[in-house]
UvrABC system protein C
Amino acid sequence: MADPTDYRPAPGTIPTDPGVYKFRDASRRVVYVGKAKNLRSRLSNYFQDLSQLHPRTRQMVQAAASVEWTVVASEVEALQLEYTWIKKFDPKFNVKYRDDKTYPFLAVSTGEEIPRAFVYRGPRRKHIRYFGPYSHAWAIRETLDLLTRVFPVRTCSTGVLNRHRQLGRPCLLGYIDKCCAPCVGRVSPAEHRRIVDDFCSFMSGHTDAVVKNITRQMEKASENLEFEKAARLRDDLTAISKAMQRQAVVLGDGTDADLVGLAADELEVSIQIFHVRGGRIRGQRGWVVDKTGDSFGRAAGDVDSDPALAEMVQNFLVQFYGDAVERENDTTGTIVRRGVDKDEHADLARVSPVPREVLVQVLPSDVEETCDFLSKLRGAKVTVRVAQRGDKKALADTVAKNAAEALKQHKLKRTGDLTTRSQALGDIQQALGMEDAPLRIECTDISHISGTDVVASLVVFEDGLPKKSDYRRYRIKDAAGDGHSDDVASIAEITRRRFLRHREDIRRVPGEDEFDGSRFRDEAPDIEEQSTDGRKFAYPPQLFIVDGGAPQVAAAREVFDELGVTDVTLIGLAKRLEEIWVPDDDEPVILPRGSHGLFLLQHIRDEAHRFAITYHRQQRSKRLRVSELDGVAGLGPARRTELVKHFGSVKRLKQATVEEIREVKGFGPQLAQAVHDSLHP
């Protein structure tokens, strides 16, 4: 039995979005599939005290060895994807139905003279169309109840149909217009067949035409003052909308498409593909591969502007669909040799693993060539494009989100367990020639836009894990007065402030001379340090990382020499090729791309960048809110903040009179008039 704490995801790494999750055992077999409105909330329930779990759940989490999840855009998609995976993997811990161990379908008996829609379980039969599977039989009945308002198809059994034929009057459904009553000749078999065809088309995902037609009829009835008919059609639209949710239709035009999403960092690329058939998500796959060629070393977040990723997309599409068609041909040949009904074989031949449309996040390097190749595989035209708007764009964003989540989880696996973290710290120690492993690592990063609104971050990792209580944020003011700053000078100031603060914290240690930091305090009045919890640092790091190359490292080294810091190893981590720059060394240290130490350094640098850019956005937002008040004599930061707080926004302040501005604390007649004049030039 496994211990669930061995594979429990790190705190805060599980998203709060709706999604579907899979538990796998040590052999990578799926043992349980579930869905959740909030993945973090649901999965945390599995990792509580084992004595509090249901016996079946306790057995499942002990049999599993890992957990993974897929984020979707809505609960409807989560429902559909969950049952797709249950049918695909047949997990032993999922609850099975007690009758024939199959999921219910909505079936339409197209082989009968008067087709019937009904709930069905069991093996598939000829001349019956199936829609589903559904989670429960009552879900099918609710769907039928909603759709028979618009498509009044027959739902009764053959016995009921024959009995009402003899009686010469319809059943209750015929009286309430939820059946067109072919049993008494209210419609002919041909007319009923057309209604059934429309019903099947709607269930196949072609919903847009039906919605547009009903909307047009409703508007026409309203224009003709036929309000009762318009109200009935409005209710039909409501029923259609609910039925579409029951069917888990994500694209209403019956789309057959594959959606490919990407997420990249400096070393690897995550690729996710969603298969949409008949407007529904039928499957999902994902890979994490190494970057190659010119794409190696490009910063994270540059997916849309990375030309090398276009080449990777083309190679992926060619290889993926080429292999899929080859496997399909082998399978079809086996089926033909075994002997299959000709009609069924024709249906198999029409089904191709290559869809009509491939929606990608980045266009392949040669779009026309890729389309021609895929068209030959399919035997019909295939389009490759980027989704621009609407439902397809929303679903494409969901696929990209899954790719980013997969890349994040892949990286966290390298730092998530003690053995891997220990190996990573050992790799760093060996590469830098340190006497001991760097159990405490600090990293700083600068964030600004064209040298304005400059801020910095300082993140702390202990034993390879973030220690957020020791994070620091710095706002760098403009000492020169030109509104700009540069990264090298900012790195020097942040380094000075951090280690000056540490010297002040330990200046009263017995046996050491008291450290006088007053002169440095006078030299660096343009830095404001903000701790995330107000506590002081307890001790210095063994390793201090600056984001940048040789110039940034040289600036930090000057500060180290100035303050007499000799017990801290200093390095710089450059983004392009993940080069490690050491002071007084003309050549960088290059760690192997698969090194656990490199991944840990990259993770620390990315966390510093995230923390810095978050603080930069906050400061920039504050400045923009009061930027229109700059230049007013006598109006400093405190009074500007008081103004915005009093009126709520600059927009409302513009609407205020001089008398209303004078009501703000600290504003006299002259200052109120100056503010009013500046806002109304």
Observations:
- Residues 135-246 form one domain.
- The radius of gyration is 33 Å.
- The chain has 22 helices and 19 strands.
